[in-house]
Amino acid sequence: MPRNGWEQEVFVPADFVLSVILPAVEHEIGHIVAAAHFGAMILGIGLGPISERSTDGWFFQAIYGWEAAPVETKCIVLAAGPAADLLYRGRVDDRGASGDLNDIEALSGVRSLEPYLNRATELLSGYRNEIVWVAERLRAALTDGEWRSMIRLPNGRLVALFIDEAKLRECP
Hints:
By secondary structure, this protein is an alpha+beta fold. The protein is 50% helix and 18% strand. A hairpin with an 8-residue loop joins strand 3 (41-49) and strand 4 (58-65). Helix 3 (71-89) crosses helix 5 (116-125).
């Protein structure tokens, strides 16, 4: 992690990896797959430090964006994380969906995954092989012990990408 021109090691607690990151793999891939489907700019899936959340000061998320996209499209992409939970874990993870619900409410004015969850689930159902392929690579990257460099996002946050846009383009 860059600090005053020097490199600094950052260790992510193992319990955070086991309890938060690994269970969220398909969730974050759901966002990336849906965002790519709708033509968003994709950076990847990464991990970074934050102070304003209660999850041990870390965020793990899909990083993508648009210059412009309809609210409905953005809400479908936000619902794609919970849709992936539903497809791969058999249920929506309420804790994992809370941020997505906040974002949907901010965009649409309604705090609900519907009707976006059904549309996202249908969309992701057409990408099952791709989701499995990315999940295998993401899990391997999360546990490979390799060093990652932090990059600064346009919003100023630092992130270490475990799967980047170049790796995602390799998906068959």
